[in-house]
Amino acid sequence: MNLGVVTGMIALGGTGGVWVQSRLDRWIVNLTELDVPWLGHEQVQVLHLRSRHPWIFPFLAAAGAGVTAAVIPPGQGGWALIGLQWSLLLLAFIDMETQLLPDKLTLPLLWAGLLFNSVESWVPLDEAVWGAVAGYSLLAGVYWIFRAATGREGLGRGDFKLLAAVGAWLGLADVPVVLMGSALLGVVGSGVLGWWGRKGTLPRVVPFGPFISLAACGVLWFNLHGRGL
């Protein structure tokens, strides 16, 4: 572990967190129920009115960047993988706080994964492309089946794009692994939240993005260990 690299990443991560916080606040102010139909009118009003802590994203982004730099060595594409893990952790925090996954973050992450694999070949580029397609299509299929059966929104569309971005980075073979891992984490997380609510019922909306991000980080670490990096 290079202390200078970790320190630099903490500073860079905190700066990125400040930028994300400012953009997120502006975006939330302009949200309407039509933009996020799965939340409903009441939850959108809560997002508009509640007082958000201005330090939370910079702090978490700095901490996430430091931890990421400590466990992923730079070089051999390591810098890009550090950026990937930092982005996944930040998106998890954003989804937990707001139940939103902004396109301005998920779509650049997707394109960055395709560009990375066109240069570094973490996975072959064709696998990266099909990984993005599979990631989006699998969750979109679940979404439309659930909507047809219940008439309700079961997933936010940002989840499709997040899993597509993960597929673009990790490749087609890892998409089902990430999806199964995130589903298991989601079941456990929902059960814990339901128990924590003291009513024995599940919360109305449980964001799925954090579970996708955590599962993807786990698969990334496993792959890094397998490659001896």
Q: Describe it for me?
A:
The protein starts with a helix and ends with a helix. It is built from nine helices and no strands. It is mainly α and 229 residues long. The protein has one domain. The mean pLDDT is 78. It is globular, with a radius of gyration of 18 Å. Helix 3 runs antiparallel to helix 4 (78-98) and helix 4 (78-98) packs antiparallel against helix 5 (103-119). 75% of the residues lie in helices and 0% in strands.
List the helices and strands and how they pair.
Blueprint: H1 3-29, H2 40-49, H3 56-71, H4 78-98, H5 103-119, H6 125-150, H7 157-170, H8 175-196, H9 209-226
Q: Which short descriptors sum up this protein?
A:
globular, 229 residues, 9 helices, mainly alpha
Uncertain parts: none
Biggest sheet architecture: none
SSE sequence, one letter per element: HHHHHHHHH
What fraction of residues sit in β-strands? under 5%
Helical run tally: 9
Give the domain tally. Answer: 1
Structural class: mainly alpha
Task: Give a count of the beta strands, DSSP E runs of length 2 or more.
Answer: 0
What's the overall geometry? Answer: globular
Span of the ends, CA to CA: 12 Å
The chain-level mean pLDDT equals 78
The portion of residues assigned to helices is: over 70%
Radius of gyration: 18 Å
